[in-house]
Design goal:
Chains A, B: It comes from Sutcliffiella cohnii. Two copies of one chain form a homodimer. By secondary structure, chain A is an alpha/beta fold. The first copy, chain A, folds into two domains: about 230 residues, Aldolase class I (TIM Barrel, Alpha-Beta Barrel); about 80 residues, no CATH class. Helix content of chain A is about 45%, strand content about 15%. Chain A contains 14 helices and eleven strands.
């Protein structure tokens, strides 16, 4: 029995990635309704904005869902956690910052705490601080990532060996093969993001979804490296403009100006790929359709079961 | 039945990575004797040097082994392939360059051709040129790598979907979990390098082996990015010196001067970590012992079988 299912009260060991700022009740509720754990990513949104998404999600589903708070990104981390307590959310995932000061309070209220980590050191720290689950995110993942650049394939088994709490694999997962591979490496489940954007349920701009479906294996790029920030985005006119600005030489402050959340919303929600960016994991190249979230999960589980049979026949 | 085993005449679906220049008959024969496919990496060695390693390997084992030729690295690619034909080697792996002009001749002589690729485009090109197998190498791998930086987790399924010939996964594999994960992603087998260096059979300097065993998850670094070259090495005084020179600004020519094969041999064979470098994959952090190659393979297969049972119990 997969212990993750019991902890998170879900049918499938699949959770939604944070998607700060572009989060919405439609996709979050679709993920939870389909048997996974939907997640609202607070990003830099105000408590009022997030509260309204929580209320709308509760109107759309009776199932559990989570709130992701990127601690050093949100201007209101404490208020976000108060919202999770107020609305008795099943789980909160904490990323981009030290989760230790927040974990105790959430657990007092019966909220499960997931912490997003990119190294064994961070994972052990989270476990020691009382986290229930660690989400280990590899270099292939979409959006802001760790400068360590450790990939999912090597990160998962090392984190599994470092902690006793369940580990969820994030970064690079798009189908049943990825689900089983993550489990083979020791993960109890997977977190997916890019694959969920490319669904018929997701309310992102069609330019964003189409770009994921059309992209080949070499079409995500890293921007921000020259200023010590790693962000994985799709190759678009705007991301190539960012790279050219980096080539000329820009400061972290200038880079931040060019990658504000407004620029993110401009790309992902407004579909303007000349003046806004769109996050994407390297898995984009594998994605070629826009199923409903429910179809996606059912296909992943079905394919996953077939994969297990195939490997048994292949490994003597 | 795993078709790879028949093609390569091996007991286990595990092959040795190239290891140009530091290759030797001892490790190559140990891998083949243990049931995998040993490989001699020609690197920049002369035909005479490689011939003597082939002869010594044949004296040590009656089992099949392969020769790896990095086409744009070796000053003698044609001579190397002549050696493979002369000594009736089972297989040749071609990397770092266009394999198309060489595949036909090798196949005429009954030699199986593996091509090392890092993108779907390269994989399809190799298949069309007649390759028997593609080795798909992810960003986590040791040594010189592709600027595309596509990781093993996402590269394998995309390549598997692009070609009909068997795919071997390379980069990030160190135990039975990695073996099964690679197979879950669609690979027929795995290529390993760093894990083989850290064996009691391998004749590399103890400083090299110890450094792998002692390293944590954040101790491989990329050098050469500033000049358009990606090489994954372990964090040592010399690699940190390389990074500092890149920070100051150096040309590709200067970088090449600092990373000649003499510098490689100085680190890996002589164990001088102040004046030579040592390649390593990100998997180094997972490695904590120096088994024989035979023990390693037996453990990988045994662990792999247990992993399959565990996933079956975890995926409902």
């Amino acid at each position: 029995m997969n212990k993750l299912l019991g902890i998170l009260d879900v049918q499938y060991p699949i959770i939604q990635g944070g998607m700060g700022n572009i989060s919405n009740a439609i996709l979050t509720s679709a993920v939870s309704e389909a048997g996974g754990l939907g997640t609202i990513g607070a990003g830099t949104m105000t408590p009022e904005e997030v509260e309204s998404i929580i209320i709308e999600t509760k109107n759309r589903t009776n199932k559990s869902f989570a709130l992701n708070v990127a601690l050093t990104v949100s201007p209101y981390p404490r208020e976000m956690l108060q919202l999770a307590i107020k609305y008795k959310l099943k789980a909160v995932s904490l990323s981009a910052g030290n989760p230790s000061p927040y974990i105790g309070k959430l657990k007092e209220h019966g909220i499960k705490v997931l912490t997003v980590v990119a190294s064994c050191k961070q994972a052990k720290k989270a476990e020691n601080a009382g986290a229930d689950i660690v989400v280990a995110e590899g270099y292939e993942a979409a959006g802001i990532n760790s400068n360590l650049e450790t990939t999912t394939f090597v990160l998962i088994p090392q984190i599994v060996d470092s902690v006793r709490i369940p580990v969820i694999a994030a970064g690079g997962i798009g189908d049943g093969r990825g689900l089983v591979a993550a489990m083979a490496l020791g993960a109890s489940g997977v977190q997916i993001g890019t694959r969920l954007i490319a669904t018929s349920d997701s309310p992102f701009h069609l330019h964003y979804k189409t770009k994921i479906v059309d992209s080949k294996d070499d079409e995500t790029i890293i921007v921000g490296r020259s200023v010590g920030r790693i962000r994985r985005v799709l190759k678009t006119p705007y991301s190539q403009y960012l790279l050219s600005k980096e080539e000329e030489g820009i400061t972290l402050e200038q880079f931040n100006e060019l990658t504000t959340e407004e620029k993110h919303i401009l790309g992902a929600i407004k579909g303007n790929l000349n003046s806004g960016f769109i996050n994407s994991g390297q898995i984009a190249g594998l994605i070629s359709d826009l199923p409903t979230v429910k179809q996606l999960f059912q296909n992943m589980i079905k394919e996953g079961k077939n994969v297990i049979t195939d490997i048994k026949n292949n490994l003597h």
